[in-house]
């Protein structure tokens, strides 16, 4: 063959720069770009209640059991499917002229801003109960924001864009969580926690602006308007009936429940480890935000390549393995002690693996939804995805760390990833992955799981 010729077409082989441009182009389309801004606003409330509040409580001398118990606030995210039907169909007075999705985006965004400011104004050392109530309010507002953000993202993306859109959403989520978390630490060091929280409330704006600019999603399919008890009942029950009528639905739900136990259990304890190893706020911001951010960017890009080359099923399986193994890096950091190199390596690998999983797994979960019930079904899926890990973190993580130490704890979280890996492999062999896809993930009747070699 003549050098520089394409074996498939006989024409000139694309140059490396051309291949790179082709790979980047899908990320620059309007819908994936909108997904980036949606992700920013989705990620930052998690940081305000999670890592940032953990640092704040630890600084005030609150014991580890109480700090990790705040992870139970995130259980609000795990029951958000209970009111997701309202986001689907309740028309907001005055705002409904903007469209069903856009009007709810505006309302939820304002609620999140108010809740973040409120949490910033309480003093955990003086009144821990008030801090719990403020964190719970932010959890409720953030969960509602997540419902509308997820539904909006899925409905503005074409089926072919689900992988790219999931990647951009993960970029945004990490930008929002990391930037808000890092900014909060820096501002808290100089001006105090109240100013830090008020400033970070602005991270709610990108999703609101994106919705106003992009408008109502073209793929949004409204079910019957809520005019009577029958229609309300259908709105509440319909999403669950449709999902559980699918073959293997209970196994799919079981996978969703267990696939992220180890990852969730470990992630919500990282700040405790950093604090006990003596890292300063500046060091945490540098490595957790700096190194972690760039590793995440690399992981999302690699995840998009793997999704395109390997197909949905094999890329999901690989990402599950990488996410499980990433917890071993934190066992190594705990054993090494205060080591900047070890911290950079652990955070880098964890974010790289999470970036890959954020593309492949989120694309699969998005494809599971029916466009009539996008908000309610994705709320159920995303809520179930981390409930086991959050329950275990809030009730046992702190006690486990105190009882067995950090190294055995992170080894245990690595083992906790095995059930999800094994179950997904068995589902692949049984053909249940293909049969679980909803119409949000179909192209002319063809499953996205079959769109590439799998």
Description:
The structure is a single chain. With 454 residues, the protein is mostly helical. The chain has a single domain (30-450), classed as Growth Hormone, Chain: A (Up-down Bundle). The chain has 22 helices and two strands. It has helices at residues 16-24, 30-49, 51-59, 64-69, 75-78, 81-89, 100-121, 128-156, 162-191, 193-200, 205-214, 229-244, 249-258, 261-267, 270-276, 281-336, 340-367, 374-384, 387-404, 406-415, 418-430, 432-435, and strands at 442-443, 446-447. 50% of the residues are buried. The model is unreliable at 1-11 (pLDDT under 50).
What's the gist of this structure?
With 454 residues, the chain is mostly helical.
* CATH topology (level 3) name: Growth Hormone, Chain: A
Number of beta strands: 2
CATH superfamily: MFS general substrate transporter like domains
Query: β content, as a range?
Result: under 5%
Instruction: State the separation between the terminal residues, measured CA to CA.
Output: 29 Å
Highest-level CATH class: Mainly Alpha
* Class from secondary-structure proportions: mainly alpha
Descriptive terms for the model:
single chain; 454 residues; mainly alpha; Growth Hormone, Chain: A; two-stranded antiparallel ribbon; 22 helices; globular; disordered N terminus
